[in-house]
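Hello again,

I reread your note about wanting to compare the complex against the isolated chains. To keep things tidy I'm splitting this into two emails, and this first one only covers the full assembly. Below are the input lines as submitted, including protein chains and any nucleic acid or small-molecule components. They are followed by the predicted structure of everything together. The single-chain runs will come separately.
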Amino acid sequence: MTETTAPALHRGAPAGEPLLHADDLVAGYLPGVNILNGCSLVLHPGELVGIIGPNGAGKSTLLKALFGLVNIREGHLTLAGQEITNMRADALVHKGVGFVPQTNNVFPSLTIEENLQMGVYQTPAKFSERLEVVLHLFPELVKRRKQRAGALSGGERQMVAMARALMPEPSVLLLDEPSAGLSPVRQDEAFLRTRRINKAGVSVIIVEQNARRALQICDRAYVLDQGRNAYSGPGRELMTDPKVIELYLGTLATDVDAARADAEAGAAADAAAQADTSPAAPVDGPEGTTPVDDEAPPASKD
Ligand SMILES: Nc1ncnc2c1ncn2[C@@H]1O[C@H](COP(=O)(O)OP(=O)(O)OP(=O)(O)O)[C@@H](O)[C@H]1O
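Full-complex prediction:
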């Protein structure tokens, strides 16, 4: 076991080789100004990993560094054991990494279908096959595929952006705040959609401001602070950790109880979903919001 897979840094991570491994990254935008000051993260096959932390902690910067959009000054990044540090984004897509930015994530003048076509511009022959898989994952898009993306709501655009990123059949999907700017019900849908993608076999890293909701769906999460790892662990453990609650989830004493209740509600929903294998087992949002079909469609892999 290497130092970077040490339990304290990656608490709760499964054994074995990570799929994606960021080791002690130092990165930034302006010369001489580092935003990431030694950040590490592992993503194992099939995991859904969250990145949370206060505003300006460097969460989005870390995601962009993983996707070759911010220069990594020190440290290493590997994908399935291969060095990919500072590899260009288009090369990373080719290697199976997808990225969904927080904003400007669709081509507004193109139709939904044309947006999805852009997702496989490197491998156009795959379009029909992948379109079928992706529309199976997002059946909401089937009837609307000829509509212009610019006419869609924020939540619908987010769905198209995720669908487009899935078109090249990534093994890793990086999501930058998929719930940003959405109403509570639409936020729930974005989180459940994220889990649906993960259940379909895609390993996911999600950056979120809505920390409590993210922790509910994540296998594990990293708390960043000032560009460094502050805490890590299984999502539901972090939700009930008084230090994490005090520093990042809210300072009210009652939040401990609220977080516990949220964690228990999430665990109960998971247990119910596992017990019920019928094709439409709904999962309730934590605040009693609209149930959304969270059942995993057939795996997107061959
Ligand atoms: N393009 C950029 N050029 C220069 N500085 C930037 C740029 N983007 C972000 N920063 C700076 O990097 C720091 C970290 O920003 P980042 O967006 O990664 O934080 P974050 O944790 O995702 O925050 P939030 O939760 O508010 O989105 C901030 O101080 C921000 O001003």
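For quick reference: The chain has one domain: 3-277.

B.
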